[in-house]
Design a protein that fits this description.
- Chains A, B: Residues 41-110 form the HIT domain.
- Chains A, B: GO terms for molecular function: catalytic activity.
- Chains A, B: This is HIT domain-containing protein.
- The structure is a homodimer of 139-residue chains.
- Chain A is an alpha+beta fold.
- The first copy, chain A, has a single domain (2-138), classed as HIT-like (HIT family, subunit A, 2-Layer Sandwich).
- Chain A has helices at residues 13-18, 58-79, 125-138, and strands spanning 19-24, 28-33, 40-45, 83-88, 98-103.
- A five-stranded antiparallel beta sheet of chain A has the order 1-2-3-5-4.
- The longest helix of chain A is centred in the middle third of the chain and has 22 residues, at 58-79.
- The model of chain A has no long low-confidence stretch (mean pLDDT 95).
- Chain A binds chain B through residues 51-54, 61-62, 64-65, 68-69, 72-73, 76, 83-92, 94, 103, 110-113, 115-116, and chain B through 51-54, 61-62, 64-65, 68-69, 72-73, 76, 83-92, 94, 103, 110-113, 115-116.
Chain lengths: 139, 139
């Protein structure tokens, strides 16, 4: 019952539907976007009722910076991508979440942003398991 | 000659063309995107040769977190927007820069991202002066 340690926090239903759990970090749950078009991770700080980065406490902001750094470096190492895109938008899902995406020239949305581009293409369970294992090993 | 204090740093030519100088913070130059469709600020860490957030030193990352926090809060207060979008993409301009954008339901790209959406609509000089003054006052 990890949820019992995070008072009032419940994962947004749409985030829950679009992403799969990867691992717990100190502040965030690390999830993977179930979209095989891009290696795409999502970090969700386990804090109830927060919509903006600047609404986190200073300590939580420092933690998030540290964890984002770790996740982005690992994603770049694992994928060998040429650029990391990171962003906190929240226009549709208001619960604070940070996207970390591996981009390459010629990928489906290049050089535009991935958000809102076409339709999500789910991984096979074998693919998502393989990608997840690589990220876990790199962290 | 502020540039003399930032060894080797030169602002990317495209960033220079699309944005106007607003003020200097500790680590970043704060600039405004010359696009009246959205209140849109751009923070450029004055570090040469850096393309990814995770390539900044830990101290610079902490500074950037602090400055981003300050800028995002000020932009939200000044505009009364319902959501801040922040992101570091860099697919086109590789020099590290962080976007902080005020979003509202019904704005030109809502709820999608602003990057790559249609054509930039420059402010009149009166408009950009007015917006710039409000942000400076809020910081």
């Amino acid at each position: 019952m990890i949820e019992a340690l995070k008072p009032g926090f419940t994962l947004d239903a749409r985030l829950d539907a679009d992403t799969e759990q990867l691992m717990w970090l100190g502040l965030c749950e690390l999830r993977i976007m179930n979209d095989r078009r891009w290696p795409w991770l999502v970090m969700v700080p386990q804090r109830a009722g927060i919509e903006e980065l600047h609404d986190l406490t200073p300590l939580d902001q420092a933690m998030l910076t540290f964890e984002t750094n770790m996740v982005a470096s690992a994603l770049k190492r694992v994928t060998g991508c040429i650029k990391i895109n990171s962003g906190a938008l929240g226009n549709i899902v208001r619960q604070l979440h940070v996207h970390i995406i591996a981009r390459n020239e010629g990928d489906p949305a290049w050089p535009g942003p991935v958000w809102g581009h076409g339709l999500r293409e789910p991984y096979t369970s074998e693919e998502i398991h393989g990608f997840t294992a690589k990220i876990k090993a790199a962290l």
